[in-house]
Design goal:
- This protein is 34% helix and 23% strand.
- By secondary structure, it is α+β, with helices and mostly antiparallel strands.
- The strands form seven sheets. A six-stranded mixed β-sheet has the order 22-23-24-25-29-30, with no helix packed on it. It has a four-stranded antiparallel β-sheet with strand order 1-28-27-26.
- 48% of the residues are buried.
Length: 739
Amino acid sequence: MNASFRRMMGLRGRWALVIGLCLWSQPAPSESAQLHRAARTGDVAAIERLVAAGADVNAKSSKGRTPVHWAAASGQVSAIRALAKAGAAIDAGDEERYTALALAARQGHVAAVDALVNLGANVNAMSRQGATPLHEAAVWGQAEAVRALLRAGADIRAKDDGNSTALHFAVINDRVAGNRQAETAAVLLASPGIAVNAKNAKGRTALHLACAYGDAEVIGALLNASADLEAREPKYAATPLHYAAALGNVAAIETLVAAGADVQVKDRLGQTPRTYAEKAGHAVAVTALADALKPRASAKAAASVVTDDFSSQRSAGRDSQPAGFSDRASAGQLAAADDAGQANRLMVEAIKAMKAAEIEPSAEGKYNLLKQAFDKLKEIVERYPSTDLAVKLATGQRVGKVSLAGVREALDAARVGGSRTPGARVRVWHHRDVLLAVALMANGRQAITVSRDGNAVVRDVETGEVVRRWRHRGRIVTAALSRNGRRMLTIGRDRNAMVHDTRTGTLVASWQEESLFTGDSPFPAALSPNGRRALTGVHSARLIDVDALEVVRNWRDRKPVGAFAFSPNGRRALIVLADGKVLLRDLRTGKTLRQWKSPGSGGSLGSKSGKAAVFSPDGKRAVIVMREAVVLRDVATGKALRAWRPGGNHAVSAVAYSPDGRWVLTGDQRYEARLHDVSTGKAVREWRYDAAVEAVAFSRNGRRVLMGFHDGAAILCDLAVSRNQRKERTYLTRDRGCR
């Protein structure tokens, strides 16, 4: 026994010695790494101490960035000045030859831009692709940075390797900077020396690109600045109207026609814009162009134009195709033309009903006409889903001035009656795509809604008016809001993560996620209560300092991550894994404090299952969602206090804790949201809708709840409940509120 014990202890001792030597041999962070971190965080005292100790002020990181690059990207003006005083190279380029000024312009740090310019930075320094800081500011929609660079003498006519100017970048930056597109373009257009009709390497002007990818506001600004309506690109001699028609941009077509564009203009092959629209299958664009030729034609005649044109087009040979577009088989075109004609007929009827509603004196009559218009639009989507009209309506795009969301808003405003009893609907808003996150601001007067198409909107709760809006570039898979509602994190399908200030809509930080994911699969992410740190990742969990753009912690567990949740003080976090295991970690040390497996998790969460986690306001309890099960745990002991299944076998997709800690709000794929008493787990109120619940939130005072749904609707409801009341069910509808 003694011998065995001695052998065991001897083995443990040897292992302890090996581990100790490994830990002892790990090098401390180098002076260069410390200097980079001090520059990111703006720690001037640390910068001065490290420089005095001999640290290389121009040392480069793995991406070729110097301390000045990191200070500029983080907007640390004092750090920039301290590094410059120590002899840092202000115009040093990283591995892509971007200077510190380009990074500051990209992030919109105007004070940093001004500081670098005052220190002698080259405002026209080019990257490896020939982009200047002005190009970077324009493509990211940083209008104030554009102004600062132009004041400093940036060349507004500078071109990159693709012969594109900053204006070319600005008019198509909706995919990057959202609604700042028009503002950035306006700043450039108002500047002296702007070359409005400059052409890129493919011979396209800014107006060509705006007609393909921009909106009516940008196109109008270009036209007001004397953009050439008849400019032609060299390959096919296509005009901006050809581009708008080819891509079905109806708003662009209407704007160009109103400005006097020639609807019958022909390209090098003799193709008109209408021919482009026909061959691309854009029936609405065809109708818009036909209306421009026949302004006095009746609505019925205009609707029939599409069918006639498609029929005549079937007999056309391959030579009549617009360049760049494939021929369509005549066998399927007969049915497509018939569907297009029926869809256009319904659209005309819907427009007539809406126009009649505008002059209808009675509220009930107005509502009935709007309901009739809405039903016609729904019929287009449901009966003729393959038509261009149906696709546009289903994806939330406008057809001329008509959209499903717009008609829904009009219905809401015209609804008759409307209960304000506890649990009744207060406000309804609509997005074009699935809602991923909702929140009510701390002041209780504003609400934030974020949809999958990247649109974020802040509205006044009482009036429903839009206070501000911005957009993530492209389609997003995840959105998360900080507890104080001041910052919002969105992650796109391209793995680009962006953090915005919800009070101003400005971009705070952006980075590329390392974990791979595909399609619209959920990507776990959470923001700390103050919005300064983020937890993200699928195959590994990363704690990111948002302001410093630095990975503070990186954990790699055996299973993928399903959800994250920060504690109210931001010092701990829950990490929910795909096998049902839940880890409680200390974010300051990185240690796992506790782990458990929730009952009823049933193994893998799956990409479509509801998975979420949230702490109680005092941080003593936590609610974890595992597929269809909701588990309440004591954080200190890890003990499961109770578990329930709100939607039976339907996955729970959203969860929120009330500010007073008395209630838990859940939403599921069964189209129901439920308010549960924490002490019993029983539901005391239910809301029923006709779409899956995707997000839920309480107001700061706990008197209202905001719910986001899969069809893009956001519904705000009054909340007044008591401990012993009987369960109540409220039916929510898009058009008439509660019934």
